[in-house]
Design a protein that fits this description.
single chain, alpha/beta, six-stranded mixed beta sheet, four-stranded antiparallel beta sheet, 10 strands
Length: 228
Amino acid sequence: MKVIEIKNVEKIYNDSEVKVHAVNGVSLDFEQGEFAAIVGPSGSGKTTLLNMLGGLDNPTTGTIIIGGKEINELKGSKLIDFRLHNIGFVFQSYNLIPVLTAKENVEFIMQMQGVSYKERSKRTIELLEAVGLGERIDSRPARLSGGQQQRVAVARALASKPKFVLADEPTANLDSKSTENLLDIMEKLNREENITFIFSTHDARVVKKARRVITVEDGKVISDVRKE
């Protein structure tokens, strides 16, 4: 069953009167529970595509449908609400709030959703234990390594119980051990909770784990391979 449909999407930027096709006529479908990687060289359009999937950017033309909703037609509070309840984001730069502890960073999304303190505290502790940080719940980001911060970011992305997690170069700043640990955690959650993971990545280790690899160049999909 298709849960994400990308229909003939284009993203055009006007740079000094020159039109740049960051994404050029892309059509893709995703089913629930996929573990997919979008790969390609810098400037190929993979991050732009991921941002449009997350409603962080709008296509110039074309349609993106997620869970039956045409997200490029959602505006303002409706778009914010849709992202809040359906999509988890993991960014290369972690984007943790420096003055908050690991626990408070993860709780923040659920607090926005109106989840009770008791429930969000319970889920936060479960998530931080799941990513191997049960003993660091009261640590602020400055006292955590890069790998630990990224695991907090993954826990935060999952806190809202999203149907989809979009991860933009999530392993770019991590060493090999941290990368393997993080990918194992995400793969486990993908299989056990049927969460759809879509990565934008250069990392061969992510590509190896992915069960579907979509290659983009010059804004176009040049191959789409599902592994056995």
